[in-house]
Design brief:
The protein has 8 helices and 7 strands. It has 243 residues and is α/β, with parallel strands linked by helices.
């Protein structure tokens, strides 16, 4: 697909990978952002006053519905929906700082809201000549690590959901793509891991993948993980267990 002159909706576009994508896409496209209220979102409004911004708490179904309704009422068909918003809580179930209430929140933000938003914007996506859904996933959706069990589960669910949705939409104008990321240098990953990929490089690879015929876009070390998982699944499990 030619990624130019499109109406692109990015969730979580006020920071991290979402912001990196927005910065690269906004010059040649009409970009709308769905994000939670924050200082970052306020800065985004000032930096890019031409953007259409819809506030939403992705853990709140009604909030997601209001944002989707605003987009539908704008009467601009959505050409590309990039589901990027996510949260990751790192405490393990046996840790003293694990919080029961974060279980549902993490599932709602990382998975339920994506399913809901795709459904709510489906009529708009079908109006476009050719459209695309891009679900930002993680290598942890392929092979889990020890910590962040709920996060890993939501990414695994997103992987299976995306594959099934791809089958459902095979005879429509909508392509369903997934982006599988390694550790990226964002606010969410502060204090965790080393050798993180910079946001700018990741955003470039994602956009290149969107413009190609590739359905699963593997970024950085995920390319190697895919090979290891295929040839030696137990080794992939061992590697990721301590990631």
């Amino acid at each position: 697909m030619n990624i130019s002159g499109k109406h692109i909706v990015i969730t979580g576009g006020a920071s991290g990978i979402g912001l990196g994508l927005l910065q690269k896409l906004q010059e040649r496209n009409d970009v709308s952002v769905i994000a939670r209220p924050s200082d970052g979102l306020a800065r985004l409004r000032k930096t890019f006053p031409q953007l259409a911004v819809y506030e939403a708490d992705f853990a709140d179904a009604k909030s997601v519905e209001r944002a989707a309704d605003g987009l539908v009422k704008s009467e601009r068909p959505v050409d590309i929906l990039i589901n990027n918003a996510a949260v990751q809580y790192t405490p393990r179930f046996l840790d003293n700082d694990f919080r029961y209430e974060t279980i549902q929140r993490e599932i709602d933000i990382n998975f339920t809201s994506i399913c809901a938003l795709i459904y709510l914007l489906m009529p708009s996506l079908l109006q476009a000549n050719r459209s695309m859904i891009v679900n930002i996933n993680s290598g942890l959706g392929l092979v889990p690590k020890t910590s962040s069990a709920i996060y890993c589960a939501t990414k695994g669910a997103l992987n299976i959901f995306s594959q099934s949705l791809r089958h459902q939409l095979a005879d429509t104008n909508i392509d369903v793509k997934q982006v599988f990321l390694p550790l990226v240098d964002t606010a969410m990953t502060q204090g965790r891991g080393a050798a993180k990929l910079p946001v700018d490089k990741v955003a470039t690879e994602i956009i290149q993948g969107m413009a190609s015929s590739t359905l699963d876009i593997n970024v950085g070390k995920v390319k190697a993980l895919r090979i290891i998982q295929r040839l030696a699944p137990s080794l992939a499990t061992k590697i990721m267990k301590s990631a």
